[in-house]
Amino acid sequence: MKDAIAILTGGGPAPGMNTVVGSVAKVFLNNGYRVIGLHGGYSSLFQKSPRISDIDFQFADDIFNRGGSAITMSRYKPTPEDFDQRFNLDFFKQNNVKLLVTVGGDDTASTANRVAKFLSDKKYPIANIHVPKTIDNDLPLPNGTPTFGYESARAEGSNIATVVYEDARTSENWFIVAAMGRSAGHLAFGIGASCHYPMIVIPEMFNKTTITCDKIVNLVISSIIKRKVMGEEYGAAVISEGVFHELSSEEIKKSGINFSYDDHGHPELGKVSKAHIFCEMIENRIKEIKLKVKTRPVEIGYEVRCDVPIAYDRQYCTLLGFGVYDLYKAGHTGCMVYVNNFGDVAPLFLRDLQDAKTGKIPPRLVDINSHFVQSIMRHVMHFITPADYEAAKKYVPNPEAYDFKKILEWE
Question: Could you say which of 106, 107, 136, 388 is catalytic?
Answer without folding.
Answer: 136
